[in-house]
């Protein structure tokens, strides 16, 4: 039963991920259910029902289906259908995929090798995984070849993940374990060095350099690397990796505008180095921006805004006494709202692809802030 599901799912190349409440089946056969928060080319973020936020590697997803969908009933892929390649895969790739016979393991393996040779390692990995699923008696040999190809392609962490799964499947294979351990030792040493370097840079408040060191490693990194790196950084520096990166971003000026342009397309006018944010830190960075915006708004007492904007106060008896603010106080309030506005604008910029409801909520918030700032500027001051 489980096998049949795997095989039929394995014949689709790029997994289509619906939005809303979904159920995801992973390569290692685990099933994750939750609401889709963010979809990126490499990662899928889900809000699990238990409340936890889950990050999944897109290329490890075998299938994804909507649960309790009121509109379209789930129509799984037919047993021999091949989903069309996504448009960002060049013509040569699409042609080769279209020409191959998707029912045999050897065809998938051949296509996988072609992918590796032609610069499509992620697709090559999926294709060879499929060949292993279709040809279970030779699955081990096929996955060993995949690990080799991944190492050659410079994707050593992906290779490590493939070998780890093999070791779990046959723990008594000493040669396999040795290969896995050798690769793991090299990679561990690299991560140790990086974590140590990052810790001293962070302690020295060289926040920009922390980002220089982490950004290329974290962007598009396989789950295993991210996990190891985050554990080691947290152990070394005493704070989670995504928190460290988000903190560094909010302490480093935007390299493009140096914090001087309200219309900078890289930082959305916020002035910090938020432009190169990776998918890994994005959810936390957005939460931080939102929290900072809310905190800035709290600096203005709500009764002040009520006196200024609530229509009841324009009528007797309230309008008999004029509401007057100290000029310095008023300016401080305006500044607080402007700070919040900047953060909400940046959030809107970051969520250009978010669903309409989230964007509308941000737009409404910005409208409220505009009105509040205008009211404060019109207020009587002494
Ligand atoms: Zn900028």
Could you characterize the architecture of this molecule?
- By secondary structure, the protein is α+β, with helices and mostly antiparallel strands.
- Among the domains are: 2-66, SH3 type barrels; 282-381.
- It is built from 14 helices and 7 strands.
- It has a 5-stranded antiparallel sheet. The protein has a two-stranded parallel ribbon with strand order 6-7.
- The longest helix is centred in the middle third of the chain and has 30 residues, at 174-203.
- Zinc ion (ZN) binds at residues 254, 256-257, 261, 264, 266-267.
In short:
The chain is 55% helix and 9% strand.
SSE layout and pairing:
Layout: H1 2-10, E1 21-26, E2 31-39, E3 43-48, E4 53-57, E5 61-66, H2 91-99, H3 105-117, H4 121-134, H5 139-152, H6 156-169, H7 174-203, H8 207-218, H9 223-237, H10 241-249, H11 282-298, H12 302-309, E6 324-325, H13 327-350, H14 356-378, E7 380-381
Parallel strand pairs: 6-7
Antiparallel strand pairs: 1-2, 1-5, 2-3, 3-4
Helix pairs in contact: 3-4, 4-5, 5-6, 6-7, 7-8, 7-9, 8-10, 10-11, 11-13, 13-14
The structure holds zinc ion.
Number of strands: 7
Strand content: 5-15%
Shape: elongated
Order of helices and strands: HEEEEEHHHHHHHHHHHEHHE
* Strand arrangement in the largest pleated sheet: 4-3-2-1-5
**What number is the mean pLDDT?**
83
Ends: how far apart?
78 Å
Major sheet size, sense and barrel closure: 5 strands, antiparallel
| Number of H- or I-type helical stretches | 14
Bound molecules: zinc ion
| Helicity level | 55-70%
Label the structural class. Answer: alpha+beta
If you compute it from the alpha carbons, what radius of gyration comes out, rounded to the nearest whole angstrom? 26 Å
Stretches where pLDDT is under 50 for at least 5 consecutive residues are: 1-13, 69-85
